[in-house]
Amino acid sequence: DYRSEMDAVAVNEEGIPYFFKGDHLFKGFHGHAEFSNKSFAELDDHHHLGHVDAAFHMHFEDNPDDHDRMFFFLDNKVFSFYKHKLEDGYPKDISEVFPGIPDHLDAAVECPHPECPNDSVIFFKGDEIYHFDLKSKAVEEKEFKSMPNCTSAFRFMEHYYCFHGHMFSKFDPKTGEVHGKYPKEARDYFMRCSKFSNSSDHVERERCSRVHLDAITSDDAGNIYAFRGHHYLHKDENDTLTSDTIDNDFKELHSEVDAAFSYENHLYLIKNNNLYVYQVGEPHTHLDGYPKPVKEELGIEGPIDAAFVCEDHHIAHIIKGNHMYDVELKVTPRKAGNERPIGPFKRVDTAMCGPGGVKVIIGNHFYHFDSTKLLSTARSLPEQHKVSLELFGCDH
Fold first, then answer.
1. Using CB atoms within 10 A as the burial measure, which of 26, 34, 163, 170 is most buried?
2. CA 17 – CA 11 distance, rounded (Å)
3. How far apart are CA 313 and CA 308, in angstroms?
4. Where are the alpha helices (DSSP H) in the chain?
5. SS (H, E, C) 333-391
6. Where are the Hemopexin repeats (predicted)?
7. pLDDT per residue as tens, the chain (396 positions)
């Protein structure tokens, strides 16, 4: 598998994971391979790019010159990029920028406050682990006894992952403790490509992926739209599946949709704090004047985890964290009310409403409730169903 043993992983400024393997880069969970020097040309200018040793995305708001940069480590050098442009003065020696940190690193990951006591970076070399305090530049050597040696590491959705071969472990950045049943197979969670070559079509890969959906919705005509990373899957009223990049059909969004709902022949797509509205049809037409702030349009602050409208109703049900809110869509100005817990769930990836009721999706599984009332009052989880099998017909 082409992404199975990665040299480095880091998220970019938009939160999209970049996976580095040899001289190739994969953008997002389903990105195609491209040469790393296509996006980061100067890596090759200064160093024949056979690989990247380590990479991380800097979180250090006290220093605007470094905050939000992507840092790459090659042998004894460090490179700082902002939006794919090399920062002035780089590359520099690792010892100059991160004194006390060795050359030829295996992995690195940012650890912002309060996830670490101070804004920090964790560096890995063999079984040696270094916590580097960005403000004081103090280095603390740690021993993470329960964790294997990491070949790459990254922080995603405030969780920390150490990759080792085909496997990964989720760890506590302060102590290195691994809780739960780890290691797990990386391809089942972060990238799904074991049965599909680069040339296979998007549809087969997307419908059989076990990577969690970002958003899903069904419209009045029975179409389902499911969004994941850079791609989306469309299932029409005849159960025909098609797939494409979000950039191709919803170019204003580019990628990474947070939530989606359908209302009166329009798709409402939410990304960060913005709401985008498209007319259903081919092509999807983006309405003039959008995007608009979610707060202005729906009366609730973004980001939002999930949203859905049930048939014949004019209420958008908004899920944020472990609470659900109702927004009356016929009223102006709209405001979010009727706050209540989302039943037995601490969090959800997405949700949709159809003729049969509400489907709440977490990972590759969904849970069915006959109504929103039953969802909010449920005390235990109903039967679990597989997204890839039961929604998209993938039987392997």
1. 163
2. 4
3. 11
4. 36-39, 41-46, 94-97, 186-189, 202-208, 246-249, 294-298, 372-377
5. CCCEEEEEECCCCCCCCEEEEECCEEEEEECCEEEEECCHHHHHHCCCCCCEEEHHHHH
6. 49-101, 102-147, 148-193, 210-253, 254-301
7. 444 567 888 888 777 788 888 777 877 776 667 777 777 876 665 545 557 899 999 999 999 999 999 999 999 999 999 988 999 999 999 999 999 999 999 999 999 999 999 999 999 999 899 999 999 999 999 988 888 899 999 898 788 999 988 788 989 999 999 877 788 877 666 654 433 333 345 677 788 777 788 999 987 777 899 998 888 999 888 888 888 888 888 888 877 899 999 998 899 999 988 999 998 877 788 999 999 999 999 999 888 999 999 876 899 999 998 899 999 999 999 999 999 988 888 889 999 998 778 999 998 889 999 888 888 888 888 888 988 888 888 875
The pair of structure tokens assigned to 124 is 């890995």
**Which amino acid type is present at position 115?**
E
369 and 378 Cβ atoms separated by less than 8 Å: yes
- Distance in angstroms (rounded) separating the CA atoms of residues 216 and 268: 11
Q: Which of 313, 351, 355 is nearest to 222 (CA)?
A: 355
CB-based contacts of 319: which residues, under 8 Å, 6+ apart? 259, 304, 305, 306, 307, 342, 348, 351
